[in-house]
Amino acid sequence: MAVSVYDLTGRTAFVTGAAGGIGRASAVLLARAGATVHCADRDPQGLHETATLIKGEGGTAHTHHLDVTDRVRLQQAVASCERLDVMAAVAGIMHSSPVLETRDEDLDRVLAVNFKGVLYACQEAARLMLAGNSGGSIITMASGAVDTGGPGLLCYGAAKAAVVQLTKTLANEVGRRGIRVNTVAPGWIRTPMTDRHEGEAQARTEAMMTRMSPLGRVGEPEDVAQAVLYLASDASSFMTGQILRPNGGVAMPW
């Protein structure tokens, strides 16, 4: 029987933000494809639940309780992997404020998690992959915010735009060593991050995003996890420095 290009048996993946949302969905799907998955997050209970889901389906999961802004702790966690084939840097936070009301501390906090945390993950993954000399796939998480300039999303959008630049730059620097670096820019996905409004406000927001989508729905974490699996697998072996946009058609940049 032919081996699927999505088969990750024998490979090791590291997923940040794995305690819930897109990170959990990605960790679970990578494990279903056969990968041993290292799950990292600052939420110990969520980490335990993700690992339990993976193990309950017969997969292999390891947990690392950490904050991605802690470079040393993240370095130690990645170094604990015997080998690394896939890094999915998913961890992120949301902040919303008009440009004229954005404070230094707001920008610093979002950049620390959404950009520096991704940078640290990329650096440690690339170092381990280069040392192993067997290639690999690094996947970052951008956002549809990089295409829209949505009101109130200066901090979030700027950090995600920086992630896109990081992705393209690193792709050029490590490509000749067989390491691919790509990013995923989701649209509105139903996660704890987007579930930040209350009651009717949340329902109105989802209804608006549903109307904006040519597909007539908002996304689920599994929709983004499928993009992560594609980039992690041999199915995307000729892709690097690219942006995948699972956004329901809300944004259609050239």
TrEMBL record:
Belongs to the short-chain dehydrogenases/reductases (SDR) family. It comes from the Bacteria. GO terms for molecular function: oxidoreductase activity. It holds the Pfam family adh_short_C2. InterPro entries: NAD(P)-bd_dom_sf, Sc_DH/Rdtase_CS, SDR_fam. Keywords: Oxidoreductase. The keyword Chloroplast does not apply. It comes from Streptomyces luteolifulvus. This is SDR family oxidoreductase.
